[in-house]
Amino acid sequence: MRKGAETRERILEIAEASVLAKGFGATSIEEVIAEAGITKSGFFYHFKDKNELARALMLRYVEENDRIFDDVFHRGRQLSDDPLQSFLITLKLLAELMGDLPNGHPGCLIATFTYQERLFDRSVREIAASAVRSWNGRFRDALNEIASVYPAHKDMDLDDVAIMFSCVIDGGIIMSRGLGDPRVLERQILAFRSFVKMLFAPAAPDIMLPPAHTAVAAE
Amino acid sequence: MRKGAETRERILEIAEASVLAKGFGATSIEEVIAEAGITKSGFFYHFKDKNELARALMLRYVEENDRIFDDVFHRGRQLSDDPLQSFLITLKLLAELMGDLPNGHPGCLIATFTYQERLFDRSVREIAASAVRSWNGRFRDALNEIASVYPAHKDMDLDDVAIMFSCVIDGGIIMSRGLGDPRVLERQILAFRSFVKMLFAPAAPDIMLPPAHTAVAAE
DNA sequence: GTGAAAACCATACCGCCGGTACAGTAAATT
DNA sequence: AATTTACTGTACCGGCGGTATGGTTTTCAC
């Protein structure tokens, strides 16, 4: 029972790496099982077909990302009571997290999957879409909280700003990979962070530095 | 001779749509030739293997995008002498272009390819990387021109802002697709446009409205 | 109009892969 | 000790990427 879960996890790990490097269609089950050290029968014991592998990969990815966001938002809120400062800290932590990855970000499963939508059934696409909506909702909530305290720039829709963060992350991953420079993603997140700062502190950004005990992570 | 070019073009058209819907690895040559109404021999007359198809797809995509950027930047410069206004017009035109696509943006080949890098040889990846660098350079040049006239916000690196635009486009395409809402991309470009406005006109954006004869496209 | 090059078609074949089917087995759990 | 879990082994099917080879039609240059 526990051994089965371990094998399953190993399969998912190997398959995810392959999917992010070659795409789902080009990910061969035979390669995966060779690397995992099991037989084809063993694979189909855990996943009845390739589509169920896709669903499992997606669920796993969404859950792990949820955990990361939970953590980083939680720590942001711990380090400051001010919604703006807390969000800026969260963004800084995220940027650090991305910069600390030795080989750069491994890739966003949601991005690959949306570029291969025809390969998956509705359920897989729904998992991805609702996860994206949930993350965008998180960002928007954080922005709304800030906007209830700080005056926001008028001609910016906060919904769009929230979605833009998702765009910057996914786009940043693509740019990092395509340009072969892992630090692009980190810089992009920090650039978005400056954008948020500017959005809520257009006139005199120096005024709203965080209190001393939260200043370390915020700047 | 001319007929050959037509067939080749038809193959590329069909293959591109398939690649953007299923990925390169899952794009079957047999499906492509069936839709194109040719035989397998006919296909391999034009492309000696699948990798050469990939290279041709990439070259075609880069050239078309170059044309689009040429056009939209040229028209932006035509409509205003002011570098900021001209860039804002360019962004507006781009947003309109994206919004007018009936089924949403078909997808960015560069994005798919970077998520399937292991399938292509170095030459294909180099074409993609240098194209991205060239487009980022265009944006950065436009921003530098603006910065030579308008004071820019200090803690924003213009290189990062330029790359961010690429991120917003690629991310916007993914979000549009994933959320099933084609208008997200247009809104994201316009949001980035507001960001640029804010970046160069933080204190009093109303002051620098364009002269009357360029006002239509700019706002 | 003719010859040559270009643009294909037809057929046959190889090996890999996704997937199915089914029979068997070692280990963990109850 | 019985049962479930977690696999292995073997055999097979059809589809696909790719190669090879030889033939046929269309187009263009002269």
From TrEMBL, chains A, B:
Superkingdom as given in the UniProt entry: Bacteria
Residue ranges of every copy of the HTH tetR-type domain listed in the record: 5-65
Coiled coil: none
GO molecular function list: DNA binding
UniProtKB keywords: DNA-binding, Transcription, Transcription regulation
DNA-binding region per Swiss-Prot/TrEMBL record: 28-47
Cross-referenced Gene3D superfamilies: Tetracycline Repressor, domain 2 (1.10.357.10)
Record carries keyword DNA-binding: yes
PROSITE patterns the record matches: HTH_TETR_2
Pfam families associated with the record: TetR_N
Keyword RNA-binding: no
Transmembrane segments: none
PANTHER family with a match to the protein in the record: HTH-TYPE TRANSCRIPTIONAL REGULATOR YJDC, TRANSCRIPTIONAL REGULATORY PROTEIN
Protein's UniProt name: TetR family transcriptional regulator
